[in-house]
Write a structure and sequence with these properties.
CATH architecture of the largest domain: 2-Layer Sandwich
Largest sheet: 7 strands, mixed
GO molecular function: DNA binding
Helix content: 40-55%
Protein name: Transcriptional regulator with XRE-family HTH domain
Shape: elongated
Order of helices and strands: HHHHHEHEHHEHHEEEEHH
Strand content: 5-15%
InterPro entries: Cro/C1-type_HTH, DUF5753, Lambda_DNA-bd_dom_sf
CATH class of the largest domain: Alpha Beta
Radius of gyration: 21 Å
Number of domains: 2
Organism: Saccharopolyspora phatthalungensis
Number of helices: 12
Strand order of the largest sheet: 1-7-6-5-2-3-4
Number of strands: 7
CATH topology of the largest domain: Endonuclease, Chain A
Structural class: alpha/beta
């Protein structure tokens, strides 16, 4: 199964095995001895460079005393690790979110297209609370937890031993006008967007509303590029995410990304555009 290393599912599988090992109290060397495997094999399972067969995963989980629902979820990931494209459904800190977090942890470059809402990677706490808090099935504690996790994702992206991932963020004009949380919340969010655009590794461009069609009108998507493995495309819907890994699919979205960027104004023009939008909203207060 070595040729499946780097797929969306195998990245989540690696993260799950790392977590299980860390919580067990065993070291990788101890687990390797009990499984009659080399230490390097266990390390490669944990970093996704090598994909274990389900039987090895089952044996490892038994040694680590992982049982119940969690064992079932990890084994499901192992059994379907060869599937390159992945529809992950669910809510909360699910496989869907785990896949996104693992991509963000290891990416070196992100293309982030957000036509209707500000990217979760640059949201303020008030804006994120307005988005997440709109789900009336969540308790206040759950909303607070998800908001904090969303904010921490940005911190994890930029605070990586002085080597933040490059983040190309393209925002549709509609996202700058939609008053999520109210006028004050949006104004603060746009000010934060301008501030973040000055950080190392960040490039922000606005795609104004116009007359011409471009593929970005079909919806948001994110492309994660990695140093030593193929790119992954994430398409997030209301209650599910699709992860695409096959080369033809990824190249289609990379071409779309190029077309969207050609429809965007320059970073300098984008900053001026956002500042002008802030002035307009402040004038309506």
């Amino acid at each position: 199964m070595g040729d499946t290393a780097g797929t969306p599912r195998t990245r989540v599988l690696a993260a799950a095995l790392r977590g299980a090992l860390a919580e067990s109290g065993f070291t990788a060397r101890q687990a390797a001895r009990l499984l009659d495997k080399s230490h390097s094999t266990i390390s490669q399972w944990q970093n996704g460079r090598r994909v274990p067969v389900p039987e090895d995963v089952s044996a490892l989980l038994a040694i680590l005393r992982v049982t119940g629902r969690r064992r079932h979820q990890i084994l499901d990931l192992a059994k379907s690790a060869s599937e390159p494209n992945w529809l992950a459904a669910g809510a909360g800190v699910s496989d869907r979110l785990a896949g996104i977090l693992e991509c963000e942890r290891t990416t070196v470059e992100i293309f982030d297209w957000c036509p209707l809402i500000i990217s979760g990677l640059v949201q303020t706490s008030e804006y994120a609370n307005a988005v997440i808090g709109s789900n009336d099935t969540l308790s206040r504690a759950e909303i607070s937890s998800r908001v904090n996790l969303r904010l921490d994702r940005r911190n994890q992206l930029v605070n990586r031993d002085g080597h933040p991932a490059d983040h190309l963020l393209l925002v549709g004009e509609a996202a700058l006008r939609q008053r999520i949380g109210g006028n004050d919340v949006l104004v603060e969010q746009l000010r934060h967007l301008v501030a973040v655009s000055r950080e190392a590794g960040m490039t922000l461009q606005v795609v104004p509303l116009g007359d011409n069609w471009h593929p970005g009108l079909m919806g948001p998507f994110v492309i994660y590029n990695f140093a030593e493995s193929p790119s992954i495309v994430s398409i997030e819907h209301h209650k599910s995410s699709v992860f695409l890994h096959e080369n033809d699919d990824v190249m289609t979205y990379k071409r779309a990304a190029g077309e969207i960027r050609r429809a965007a104004i320059s970073p300098e023009e984008s900053t001026a555009f956002i500042l002008d939008a802030i002035k307009q909203m402040e004038g309506k207060e």
